[in-house]
Amino acid sequence: MNRYDLRELARQRVREARQLLRTRAPSGAYYLTGYAVECALKACIARRTQGYEFPSRHTVNESHTHDLEKLLRLAGLERALAQDTRTRAALGLNWDTVKDWTEQTR
Fold it and tell me: What's the predicted TM-score (pTM) here?
């Protein structure tokens, strides 16, 4: 699976989550939104891998997780999130809601 596949999968999960919200199924929407964030972060990690460059074992092993905070760090987006949450309070609230998501959350 490449970054384009992951990005499309994230978009698809968001569309499905919106449908669940419309039908008043917030738990299912939260569950799928967590997967959307995971796929989006993994797409960002994949984007950082240079063409024909063999990724480090650490990055590969650490990327096989559902831990959103770990994926955020591996994607190199911690600083950007911190800066953006200072000017966009809703982003900070949304991250606080989703950061503790796990694949067991239902």
Answer: 0.88
As a whole number of angstroms, the distance between CA 72 and CA 64 comes to 13
Taking the C-alpha atoms of residue 49 and residue 90, their distance in angstroms, rounded to an integer, is: 30
pLDDT of residue 106: 63
CA dist list (Å): 68 to 1, 14, 22, 53, 54: 19, 16, 25, 25, 24
SS3 content of the chain, % helix, strand, coil (to 5): 75, 0, 25
In eight-state DSSP terms, residue 99 is T
Confidence of residue 51 (pLDDT cuts 50, 70, 90): confident
